[in-house]
């Protein structure tokens, strides 16, 4: 989910988390967001709740360390999570039969920016493919809206196709900035040794499109349809899965990403780095010329439109 990224309808603890904020500060769509989060957790077969106890936070550290392959250098520490929760920030877990299978950690932006930054989220490989990540994010959204927070921000690796689809289509979040090598070197089982470029996402929690996405109605942009309507290919892929730069002058542009960058980092790290550089150049050049990423085709294409 994040590069460094479920209200369930069962336990009473989850209901308490949903309603603990003053209703006076809640956004208009907060109660609807709670219902969406309940449905998502039930569909995923998990119970999601905010975590504060030391043993629960320690389980989060262990799970995220396992997911990222960083047992000796965990992505977050127990001390940091303890401080986060004491200061009122967000740490949640998804549970299946009492076992932690997913976790999400966020902290608040500066007071003049009405947002929560979702720093890291992950789901155990043993529970993959069941939309537990979707349930976690919808829990986080409901929790934030109940506290009067309008936006959630996070970063993710733009080369990971499934995460791009999840963020732009399933959640209807939108990129606002391209961040080259944002974290520096992160030698782990997910990032490898490549540059850690990230897209900074902004999730407008009470927007109509976000409401529809969280209720299960997604806007799927189709690359073939965009081409038929006049889009140009800014970055293509060859039959050998190499990047092939194209035109950068279209009103609507398509930018390809590898079909499986994680496998490529293992089998051909040089080619993976070539993709890093060419995607960076395409997206940043288009952004500098007024382009805005408006969606993602699941086949591996960013759709970028120029705006006045």
Automatic annotation (TrEMBL):
PANTHER family on file: GCN5-RELATED N-ACETYLTRANSFERASE, N-ACETYLTRANSFERASE DOMAIN-CONTAINING PROTEIN
Biased composition of type Low complexity is found at 8-31
Which domain of life does the protein's organism represent?
Bacteria
What positions belong to coiled-coil segments?
A: none
GO molecular function terms listed in the Swiss-Prot or TrEMBL record: transferase activity
Any idea what this protein is called? Answer: Putative GNAT superfamily acetyltransferase
Swiss-Prot/TrEMBL keywords: Transferase
Q: Where is this region: Disordered?
A: 1-36
Has the keyword Transferase been applied to this entry? yes
This protein's species is Prauserella shujinwangii
Listed InterPro entries: Acyl_CoA_acyltransferase (IPR016181), GNAT_N_AcTrfase_prd (IPR038764)
């Amino acid at each position: 989910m994040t590069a460094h990224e479920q209200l369930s309808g069962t336990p009473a603890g989850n209901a308490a988390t949903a309603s603990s904020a003053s209703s006076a500060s809640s956004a208009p769509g907060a109660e609807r967001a709670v219902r969406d989060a309940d449905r998502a957790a039930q569909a995923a077969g998990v119970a999601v709740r905010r975590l504060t106890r030391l043993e629960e936070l320690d389980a989060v550290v262990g799970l995220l360390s396992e997911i990222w392959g960083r047992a000796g250098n965990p992505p977050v520490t127990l001390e940091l999570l303890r401080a986060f929760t004491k200061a009122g920030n967000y740490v949640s877990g998804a549970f299946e039969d009492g076992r932690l299978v997913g976790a999400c950690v966020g902290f608040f932006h500066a007071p003049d920016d009405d947002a929560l930054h979702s720093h890291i989220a992950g789901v155990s490989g043993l529970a993959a493919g069941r939309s537990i990540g979707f349930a976690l994010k919808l829990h986080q959204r409901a929790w934030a809206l109940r506290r009067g927070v309008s936006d959630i921000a996070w970063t993710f690796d733009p080369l990971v196709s499934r995460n791009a689809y999840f963020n732009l289509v399933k959640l209807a979040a939108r990129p606002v900035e391209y961040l080259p090598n944002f974290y520096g070197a992160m030698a782990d089982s997910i990032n490898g040794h490549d540059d850690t470029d990230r897209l900074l996402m902004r999730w407008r929690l009470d927007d109509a499109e976000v409401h529809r996405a969280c209720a299960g109605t997604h806007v799927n942009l189709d690359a073939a349809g965009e081409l038929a309507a006049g889009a140009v290919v800014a970055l293509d892929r060859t039959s050998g899965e190499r990047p092939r730069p194209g035109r950068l002058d279209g009103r609507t542009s398509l930018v390809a990403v590898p079909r499986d960058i994680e496998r490529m980092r293992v089998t051909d790290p040089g080619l993976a780095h070539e993709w890093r550089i060419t995607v960076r150049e395409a997206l940043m050049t288009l952004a500098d010329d007024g382009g805005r990423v408006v969606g993602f085709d699941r086949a591996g294409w960013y759709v970028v439109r120029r705006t006045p």
